[in-house]
């Protein structure tokens, strides 16, 4: 291990092997130093400006950018999440917390047996790797292009299920409500809304 005593580190420089400081590179231009310096400034004035005018001009991300998560719905408004916790187990940052609940005929939130009763993502931990959305068996969890997640309060960066749920689109109904697209959960995945074979979005 090199000897980095205060003497050797003085002035922010570390002496090279042999105990001698490296000499500055010899000047190759015949122009005086101030002219060289202003030359750099002048040539930079004509280069393409890369400054982002954010937030006045929000940056457009790549289509597959990994941003804020979304919990999606079936076309009738029922939730795709079945509370299986696979996303939480897949997360390397331990950023997801899920508690499943049991659907009843009186209060149904998703097709099938279970739904995500509690769902939280801690954006202080999330590294936006996308492993959680790969693990989700129902395509409930996806990632949007929204990157505006900064806040000055730690607690507000733990997003709840209500914040993550996709909005209700026309034709959707706020759960709980009965299954509208078939008699059991298989109809939601094996049959399109019109009755044709296929998967729902
Ligand atoms: S994107 Fe990665 S770090 Fe963030 S919640 Fe999903 S698995 Fe965890
Ligand atoms: S988001 Fe997907 S993986 Fe996570 S609990 Fe819900 S269904 Fe399971």
TrEMBL record:
Q: Where does [4Fe-4S] cluster 2 bind?
A: 91, 126, 129, 132
EC numbers for this chain: 7.1.1.-
Q: Where is this region: Disordered?
A: 1-36, 180-201
What remark does the entry make about the cofactor?
Answer: Binds 2 [4Fe-4S] clusters per subunit.
Catalytic activity reads: a quinone + NADH + 5 H(+)(in) = a quinol + NAD(+) + 4 H(+)(out)
Superkingdom field? Bacteria
- State the protein's name: NADH-quinone oxidoreductase subunit I
Q: Which GO terms describe its molecular function?
A: NADH dehydrogenase (quinone) (non-electrogenic) activity
Residues of the signal peptide: none
Topology of the protein relative to the lipid bilayer:
Peripheral membrane protein
According to its UniProt record, which cofactors does this protein need?
[4Fe-4S] cluster
NCBIfam families associated with the record: NuoI (TIGR01971), PRK05888.1-3 (NF004537)
Task: Give one Pfam family, short name only.
Answer: Fer4_7
User: What are the binding positions for [4Fe-4S] cluster 1 in this chain?
Assistant: 81, 84, 87, 136
Q: What class of enzyme is it?
A: translocase
Q: How does it assemble?
A: NDH-1 is composed of 14 different subunits. Subunits NuoA, H, J, K, L, M, N constitute the membrane sector of the complex.
Biased-composition ranges for Basic and acidic residues? 1-13, 180-189
SUPFAM superfamilies, sorted = 4Fe-4S ferredoxins (SSF54862)
Q: What does this protein do?
A: NDH-1 shuttles electrons from NADH, via FMN and iron-sulfur (Fe-S) centers, to quinones in the respiratory chain. The immediate electron acceptor for the enzyme in this species is believed to be ubiquinone. Couples the redox reaction to proton translocation (for every two electrons transferred, four hydrogen ions are translocated across the cytoplasmic membrane), and thus conserves the redox energy in a proton gradient.
Q: Which UniProt keywords apply?
A: 4Fe-4S, Cell membrane, Iron, Iron-sulfur, Membrane, Metal-binding, NAD, Oxidoreductase, Quinone, Translocase, Ubiquinone
Q: Where is this gene product found?
A: Cell membrane
Domain 4Fe-4S ferredoxin-type: where?
71-101, 117-146
Indicate the family of this protein: Belongs to the complex I 23 kDa subunit family.
